[in-house]
Amino acid sequence: MRSAQHRDYLRLPPRPCQWLFYQLPRTDNCPELTTVHLPSSIKGLGSECFSGCSKLSSIDISNVEYFDEATFSGTSSLTQVTLNATIDEIPVECFLNSGLTSITLPDSVEEIGDRAFRG
């Protein structure tokens, strides 16, 4: 599987967001999370990392090189993101039911998963 291959390469824990959320003040399913400042060392975001964070409106993911499935599903307040110029895949349901109104895909994107932008 593609994401497992990326995890090995980047030496991230199996669920990098589980690790990431230990570093952030949050409650279960992050209902009150509005802004995230990721350290530049975070290169990948795991499956459902910010899923259900309906108030998340600001996150800089310009250093993130890969996402797993449903990373931003249910982020209804997230209207804009800037993708890393080297991203090659937008996984299944990555932005499902997000609030995105527009997105610029870099030329490097080779694959867009099912329902990546539905909703």
Tell me, briefly, the overall form: globular
Q: What is the overall number of helices?
A: 2
Average pLDDT: 78
Backbone CA Rg:
13 Å
Give the structural class: little secondary structure
Number of strands: 6
In whole angstroms, the N-to-C terminal distance is 26 Å
Stated plainly, the CATH topology is called Leucine-rich repeat, LRR (right-handed beta-alpha superhelix)
User: SSE string, helix = H, strand = E?
Assistant: HHEEEEEE
Provide structural commentary:
- The chain has helices at residues 2-10, 16-22, and strands at residues 35-36, 44-45, 58-59, 66-67, 89-90, 111-112.
- Helix content is 13%, strand content 10%.
- It is built from 2 helices and 6 strands, in the order ααββββββ.
- 32% of the residues are buried.
- It has one domain (1-119): Alpha-Beta Horseshoe (Leucine-rich repeat, LRR (right-handed beta-alpha superhelix)), CATH 3.80.10.10.
- It is globular.
- With 119 residues, the protein is mostly loops.
- The strands form 3 sheets. Strands 1-3 form a two-stranded parallel ribbon.
Characteristic terms for this protein:
119 residues; little secondary structure; Leucine-rich repeat, LRR (right-handed beta-alpha superhelix); two-stranded parallel ribbon; two-stranded parallel sheet; 2 helices; globular; LRR_dom_sf
